[in-house]
Amino acid sequence: DQQVKQNSPSLSVQEGRISILNCDYTNSMFDYFLWYKKYPAEGPTFLISISSIKDKNEDGRFTVFLNKSAKHLSLHIVPSQPGDSAVYFCAASSGGYQKVTFGIGTKLQVIP
Amino acid sequence: DSGVTQTPKHLITATGQRVTLRCSPRSGDLSVYWYQQSLDQGLQFLIQYYNGEERAKGNILERFSAQQFPDLHSELNLSSLELGDSALYFCASSYSGSEGYYGYTFGSGTRLTVV
Q1: Does residue A6 contact residue B41 with C-beta atoms inside 8 Å?
Q2: How far apart (Å, rounded) are the C-alpha atoms in residues B53 and B67?
Q3: What percent of chain B shows pLDDT beyond 70?
Q4: What is the helix (H) or strand (E) element at residue B84, kind and residue range?
Q5: How far apart are the first and last CA of chain A?
């Protein structure tokens, strides 16, 4: 049972444009959502998170939006840069001490 | 360098064998997590240790076991290996184990290939 779903395995975007990565979840108990970025031959690195009490969190070029009623979140990257090319994992947890459940990732390619 | 060290980086072994993967957490972190990433799969949670004790268990096979030692390093033991065990195994650490809110720090992984 995949509780965190990333239905787009890959995405290509022109440099300078907006990248939108989507994620759906099924577990209503999730109350914290995270995005990780992973470069080849490296481990995932934490990018940005959002609590279920918010619907938006922004950090520089990265913004995460949460729609609780639709059980959907998205990561917006504006403007996209070639260095953003990586695999992006959506993740969720239910309570700070609970394990984090990851999606399968979306590979973003930013074309110069 | 994330501060989480995993060894070895690559491991090739035959079916039926046993291997041990090692993880040294970031300095000061008490909690260690093990994740498995197979082809076209997300990061599957295996097990979590906090200050030497098992805290949470995920989809870890009975052929797999782990422990965390007094110096806080952790080992993941995989036995009776099968071809399907070929995967990237990641270790992550956090200070208190409550970082479902703030994210973990991951190591660069061990790529296990079973032939």
Answers
A1: no
A2: 8
A3: 94
A4: none
A5: 38
List the A4-5 sheet strands across, edge first: A4-5, A19-25, A72-77, A62-67, A56-59
Structure tokens at A29: 């108990």
Give how far Cα A29 sits from Cα of A25, A52, A91, Å. Answer: 10, 10, 13
Note whether A32 and A52 are within 8 A (CB): yes
Partner-chain contact A42 B42, CB within 8 Å: no
Q: Is the pLDDT of residue A100 over 80?
A: yes
- Model pLDDT for residues B33-71, shown as the tens digit of each residue: 999 998 777 889 999 999 999 988 988 999 999 999 999
Which 3-state string (H, E, C) describes A70-107?
Answer: CCEEEEEECCCCHHHCEEEEEEEECCCCCCCEECCCEE
CB contact under 8 A, B100 and A97: yes
Please name the residue of chain A whose CA is at the shortest distance from the CA of residue B1: A42
- Is the Cβ pair B100, A2 closer than 8 Å? no
Evaluate if residue A96 carries a pLDDT over 90: no
- Identify the closest residue of chain B to A42 by CA–CA distance: B108
